[in-house]
Design goal:
The structure is a single chain. The protein is α/β, with parallel strands linked by helices. It has a single domain, classed as 3-Layer(aba) Sandwich (Rossmann fold), CATH 3.40.50.960. The protein is about 45% helix and about 20% strand. The protein has 5 helices and 6 strands; from the N terminus they run E-H-E-H-E-H-E-H-E-E-H. The strands form 2 sheets. The protein has a 4-stranded parallel β-sheet with strand order 2-1-3-4, with helices on both faces. Helix 1 (about 35-50) packs across helix 5 (about 145-165) and helix 2 packs parallel to helix 3. The radius of gyration is 15 Å and the shape is globular. Bound molecules: ligand DLZ. Ligand DLZ binds next to strand 3 and helix 3.
């Protein structure tokens, strides 16, 4: 769905379980930092506003979006986490680099979701220019970091719910 139809920061807080007992990892790419650090702010504020404790949120930076997959895998291997949020921003340039990075990250994060039993959230902006990115990093279309944090809480809650069915 195009983000012109949906504000990335709007959701129904009543649909969100408390994140008080949850632990999250956030991997943030420092390429296009003005954008990605705004995504990070949105994600952190959202997790905390739903009860997550600051000490239960592990934030690590990677150089570019291509490194998000491995950064997220490190989080899954070395952290005791309920979910990992991947934040990045890829802006279309003159070459096909954009396509390769987007494909790599999309494929990588999908693989992680299949191979580890925790959610990895795709908080990647893929835009034609910086203005479109800023519009989605706290601007007129909301903040993709907020959307990613809400998704992480929902998916971690879903997993806990499924685990309880087993008991
Ligand atoms: C090289 C590159 C380019 C051209 N553009 C972006 C971008 O728009 N967003 C982003 O997150 N990263 C970009 N990178 C860096 C790659 O993601 C990666 O860090 C390098 O290719 C080194 O592996």
């Amino acid at each position: 769905m195009a983000t012109t139809l949906k504000n990335l920061s709007s959701y129904n807080p009543n649909e969100i379980t408390s994140a008080k007992k949850m632990k999250f990892g956030i991997v943030v790419s420092d390429w296009n930092a003005e954008v990605t650090h705004a995504l990070l702010k949105g994600a952190l504020e959202t997790l905390i506003s739903h009860g997550a404790k600051e000490e239960n949120i592990l934030v690590k930076h990677v150089p570019g979006s291509f490194e998000l997959t491995l950064g997220a895998q490190f989080m899954a291997e070395y952290g005791d986490l309920d979910g990992v949020i991947c934040l990045g921003c890829v802006i279309q340039g003159e070459t096909r680099h954009f396509d390769f990075i987007c494909q790599g990250v999309t494929h990588g994060i999908t693989e992680l979701n299949m191979n580890y039993n925790i959610p990895f959230v795709f908080g990647l902006l893929t835009t034609n220019n910086q203005e479109q990115a800023l519009d989605r990093a706290g601007g007129k279309h909301g903040n993709k970091g907020v959307e990613a944090a809400v998704t992480a809480i929902k998916m971690a809650a879903l997993q806990k719910e499924m685990e309880e069915l087993e008991d």
